Amino acid sequence: MGLAVKPLYYTADMVRALPDDGNRYETVYGELLVSPSPGPMHQVVLHRLTLALGNFPAAEPVGQLLSSPADISRGPDILVQPDLFVASIHELRTGTWSEVRTLPLAIEILSPSTARYDRFTKRRLYQSVGIPDYWVVDIDEGLIERWTPGLSLPQIERDRIEWRPGGVSGVLAIDVGALFRPI
Asked: Is the pLDDT of residue 65 over 90?
């Protein structure tokens, strides 16, 4: 009996066909990204960020705040699942993930197994497609790396991060330290 050969290049359709085994599967330009279930502190920080962002995106109206699982695809060999993101309400109304492409904000919370993907692979993708704000949340260091399309180095936020989406007058401020307080 021969060993199954794994493809070297994955399409979004191939990733969608992978088993529901508790891992998160993504592909960026054909590279398969596999992440195990997140740890407890990851989920606590995700919940705190969700509460901190609250209804701001819908009230301003920037979009709808959502969390993964979600199949955000920007091409045949791209399928990502940001931990937390704001998506266009108009695109969400289509009822399919395939139409969701406009993300005013994407957030990834680092885990040991995702740090390279989140800081390099996905960051470069998000910058290249013009995601206006991409936050990499580093629980271990107690900071948020903020990336925008033109940056070669992130803005490091340790105390407070402000989100000023284009086209709105409001500003959302989040106490970064409060996100990382002990459980």
From this structure: yes
